[in-house]
Amino acid sequence: MAAYMRSMICLVSIERNVFLHSRGSGVIVETKRYVRGLRRNPVRVLFPENEADKVIKPRPQPAGRDVHREKEQKVKAAIKHPEEDFVKARSNVQATTTHARVTGTKDQIDGLRFERAFPGDKRLGKLVSITRSRTFREHQGKILLEGRRLICDALNAGANPHMVFFSTADRLRELPLDKLKRATLVKVKFEDIKIWSDVVAPQGVIAIFARPDPLRLNFANKGDSVPLSLICDNIRDPGNLGTMLRCAAAAGCHDVLLTKGCVDAWEPKVLRAAMGAHFRLPIYQSLSWDDMEKHLPKSVTVHVADSSCGTDRSEEIKDLQVNVSHKKLKAGDYGWVSTRSNRNNARYEEYDSDTDSDCEEGAQLLPTVDSKLYHESWAQSPTALVIGGETHGLSVDAVQLAEKTSGHRLFIPVAPDMDSLNSAMAASILLFEARKQLLKLT
């Protein structure tokens, strides 16, 4: 009962403080600062029974106070949810890009529509990372080409472009635009291209192509070729392989065949060193020696480049044959066949000097191939030239193929105290000599 009386006394005191007295026809309301509920604007106020017909109209709040309060609320909302504003801004950019692409009024270069890379676009970095890996290149079937000249060579040969990243409209206009209708064009900042470029001075254009099929490309100098093939055997250096491809294209070779031990022909370093040779003659890679003959003419003669069959080396071989005439020679006794072959691909075992029977059972006889100087007559029919790597040298299979087709070991004499020439330099000398001899026949 005492609690009930205290609550009634508090209620009566609050009503007495709120409603005082009336003057004329209006009622004056006295507000209390400590009462937070009165900040709201009531629509209708109910009075006791004797004053029920009278309505109090709230005083209008100053306009400046409401504006200040709204600003504070906006600032607080921006501080609490900054990621929502970023998402909204990004969606607005994408919506604007989509609208421009649909309407066609913007983002066009000579009738070709292109996209603008939004902030944080990772397509360029992702595709560059994929195409720089040989495993991903073979799995995805894509290659990366950088620079105007290389991209133009690919387009003129009939390669299929997937995406083209460019920094300015002038860079894109340097390409044949009529052959880019099916490609996705993306405009990115030059700084992004510079980050992912593999050259010191990037040109501002990078293209992703489908891995070309040599049988479907249109080679411009196909009619000027001679019956000459280049076989690269265990070429591991990208710069050497690219230089060999460039020399083969310049000498008018019919095609280039790469064994399984060679570096990937579509590696960026090989592409830069070849200077467009990939799109001027067919290149077949990852071939086994059993499949090698399928890509060569039936009447072909295979020759091997030998850096160790000079006069001094011939005398050493004769002395070796005299001293060990009772033993069978193997590839390791000669300097022009690799003695560090892979065990999985080795065609002979190590020589055991203890017993002759082990030698006769385990060692493989070295094929008999005569040697010739490079300027002598050796290219008198459809010819194939085998160039071995500087580290691993020629494989035994290459020498066996030369023996089978009545080929020769070709020797380039050099000055004393010099070991040998670079494999790419030797290839260029022998290829142009073969071209000269083949042209004399025609």
UniProtKB/TrEMBL annotation:
Q: Which residues form a coiled coil?
A: none
Is Ribosomal protein one of the keywords? no
A single GO BP: methylation
Keyword terms: Methyltransferase, rRNA processing, Transferase
Q: List the molecular function annotations (GO) for this entry.
A: RNA binding; RNA methyltransferase activity
User: Which GO CC terms are listed, alphabetically?
Assistant: cytoplasm
Segments forming domain RNA 2-O ribose methyltransferase substrate binding: 144-215
> Which family does this protein fall into?
Belongs to the class IV-like SAM-binding methyltransferase superfamily. RNA methyltransferase TrmH family.
Q: Would you tell me the protein name for this molecule?
A: RNA 2-O ribose methyltransferase substrate binding domain-containing protein
Q: Which organism is it from?
A: Champsocephalus gunnari
